[in-house]
Design a protein that fits this description.
5 strands; 4 helices; single chain
Length: 110
């Protein structure tokens, strides 16, 4: 018995036009009706996926998403952080030094 579907947005749930197909909407709605928890997973912040959550009816109490590439688990209705994983400053310094050594771009969000 399936209890949870965790699904990525870009390149998975969303088509090339960044839209959710009717077929996918129907399949997820049927799963939700059967009690399956639907969890969207993305590198985006919660605010940048709010319209997809609305479109799929995933804004009820108890609905949550995995955002920031796994950095946060948030409640969809309130944005409350359920779980978070952050990097230590020392790790960021090591990554910065490595990126400089390899002449690679590096973006850091705080």
């Amino acid at each position: 018995m399936i209890k949870l579907i965790a699904i990525d947005l870009d390149g998975t749930l969303l088509n090339e036009e960044k839209q959710i197909s009717d077929e996918n909407k129907q399949a997820l709605a049927k799963a939700k009706e059967k009690g399956v928890k639907i969890v969207l997973c993305t590198g985006r912040p919660l605010a940048a996926m709010a319209h997809y959550l609305q479109e799929l009816g995933l804004v009820d109490e108890g609905d949550y998403s995995i955002t920031f590439n796994g950095g946060l688990v948030q409640k969809n209705d309130t944005g409350e952080i359920i779980e978070k994983k952050v990097m230590e400053v020392a790790d960021i310094h090591r990554l910065y030094d490595l990126a400089q050594k390899l002449a690679l771009p590096l973006d850091i969000l705080s």
